Amino acid sequence: MPDNPIPQGLLPTSEPDLFFEDNAVGRLKKEVWDASDEEIDAILADYGIPSPVEWGKPGSYIQTTTRWQVEANRKKNDVVFIPVGCTELHGQHLPSAADTLYVSAICEGVRRFTRAARGLRRLRWAHLPTLRNHDRRIPDCGRLSPTVYYAHGYSGQGVALTGLYGKLMAEAIRGTAERFDLLAKVKHLPFPGGPMRTPMLVAAMMYYRIRDALS
User: Fold this and answer.
1) For 182-210, how does the pLDDT look when each residue is reduced to its tens digit (9 = 90+)?
2) 47 phi and psi, to 5 degrees?
3) Where are the domains of the chain?
4) Residue 26 burial by CB count (10 A; 0-12/13-18/19+): exposed, middle or buried?
């Protein structure tokens, strides 16, 4: 560990120029950062990751299940996960559906994890690929009802945070909701502009992308 002073309000890591904020979100990020390969492998094993993608598996997604089966399933189970990704290019080494693939794999893992737990109902979910950013630059999460959970708006941090939020939702479903509820209390401001909010957001993101490319 270097002898450089630690900035106030930040948590140090093994990298001299990498810090996390000393708050609930930062401490959760540091927990993942500090985890050993064995600890990460154990967590992934609990969720059955890696596993083949389930987009083509009958009965996995609402969109790929016949309507009469969806209605029959909902009478027995009303827990729904909606993984929200986006179509966005992150470089020549990744497909443009990378975010969508990541978050879908996380939700599939959460379903396998909760299905294996005694006394928990089987999970179903829908899929909605789109782009979400938030003013706080952390996901907006919470519950739409006692059995419907959501987390979206990863704001370019999806690779680091999708697994973490999937784990927190799984903890909440299993009855340990303290960490999920803590992040659900974070308030997010709506993007201004009314009907012009989407064009304004796209224009602003394009401006900063061009500025970064030219700097």
Assistant:
1) 988 888 776 667 777 778 877 877 887 78
2) -100, 5
3) 1-34, 35-190
4) middle
